[in-house]
Structure formats: C-alpha cells, structure tokens
C-alpha cells in the first residue's frame, strides 16, 4: 500500500495536535461507558489513541497505522506512557488488511474516512456490524467539503516549535464526482525567512451525511451527529 504520508509525516503529528483539544472531549463523550476493545483506525501519531485511553481507562485499544513514519511517532508515544503501553497494541497494516479482535466495543475513525473508497467503506461497515458488542458504537468525522469542488489555497495550521514556525497550507481540486485531490504544502520559516518547503498530494474520497446514512442502513447501523456542528462528528450504533 502506498504511504501517502511518507514525506509529510514529520509535520502531521504536530499539525494534528491543535485539533485534539476540541476533538478529544467530544470523542470522550461519544465513547462514554463503551466496552473495550476499541480500534483506532489510522491512529497517526496517537493523539486520538491517547484521548480514547483517557476516556476509557480500562479498555484495550488496537491502534491501526500503516504509515511507517507516523507509526514510529505512535509507538514512541505509546511506549512513553505506562498507561498506554500496557493496553495499546499497534498494528502496521491498513484497516482492511489488519486482523481485528472478533468483538469490538468501538471503532474510532477520526480524520481518516476519506482514505477509503466506497468499496472499502462497505467492507468497514460490514466488519463493524459483525463485530459490535451490545452497547458498542463507532465514532467518525466527515471533513468538508462534502462536494467535489475546488478549494482555493488556505493556511490550515501554524505551529511554532523553538525558533521555527511550521505552516500547513492546503488546496484541493476535484478528481471525480465524489473524489478530491488535496495538495498540501508544508512550509518552514525561521526568523521570518522560508527555510523549507515540502509538497504532498493526498487522494480523498468524499462522503455526505446522506450517503453515510444509506451505506450504513444496509448493515442495520444508524449514524447520529454528536458534538458541535463544526466537528462533523457522528456516533454510529445499531
Ligand atoms: C490525517 S491522519 C489522522 C491521524 C489521527 N487519526 C488523527 O486524527 O490525529 C490519517 C491517517 O490515516 C492513515 N491511513 C491511511 N490509509 C489507511 C488505511 N487504509 N487503514 C488505516 N489507516 C490508514 C494514515 O496513515 C494517517 O495516519
């Protein structure tokens, strides 16, 4: 499988970090009293894995992360914290190739569902429906835009570390009726001067709420919105 994060991994974890203070509490609420085990799909560097662990202090967690570079960050984060090390298992495959527990309390797919085409999503819903324990659920977010429209370049995030400022810029163009190509540019500045630039493109499959409802219905699953509208988060249950 192609690692779309190979060249951007060094920026991804620090650029995801500012999103998690808002996402974490909504995820924690959505997972309240859910039984383990919990699968964290596309765990990246593990901000979500840590939020799940904080929300469910006794649950076993399986963090699935196919990108070797991001998985290095994830393993280090898990290894550094004894509360994670004892109960987080990191799997190196993509979700559709990974061997998941037979029964699941939850599946968390934050900032990742666009990496799966419609056939891949159907496999996820089928696997979820077959594995969910009573009281179990999935939590995911849908990121704008929902339609295949061009997105002009904008600065998505800026992080200062030491003397350097790291900026993530994004623009997108349609790549099909329900598909975008995101072109990201990661720019580094020091003392106000540019010192580095890395450009990366990602394929992203679009999913509307309406389509999500239709895809899940086939498997007897129902999504409901959770958290503030701008988080775009859904809880999926039977
Ligand atoms: C934007 S990052 C999100 C990371 C993390 N979930 C977060 O919200 O901070 C998307 C992640 O999905 C992972 N990913 C891509 N394709 C995947 C697949 N088929 N199965 C599992 N993870 C995948 C990428 O390697 C990357 O770590």
Automatic annotation (TrEMBL):
<feature type="domain" description="Methyltransferase type 12">
    <location>
        <begin position="39"/>
        <end position="137"/>
    </location>
</feature>
<keyword id="KW-0489">Methyltransferase</keyword>
<dbReference type="InterPro" id="IPR013217">
    <property type="entry name" value="Methyltransf_12"/>
</dbReference>
<dbReference type="GO" id="GO:0032259">
    <property type="term" value="P:methylation"/>
</dbReference>
<dbReference type="GO" id="GO:0008168">
    <property type="term" value="F:methyltransferase activity"/>
</dbReference>
<keyword id="KW-0808">Transferase</keyword>
<dbReference type="Pfam" id="PF08242">
    <property type="entry name" value="Methyltransf_12"/>
</dbReference>
<dbReference type="InterPro" id="IPR029063">
    <property type="entry name" value="SAM-dependent_MTases_sf"/>
</dbReference>
<protein>
    <submittedName>
        <fullName>SAM-dependent methyltransferase</fullName>
    </submittedName>
</protein>
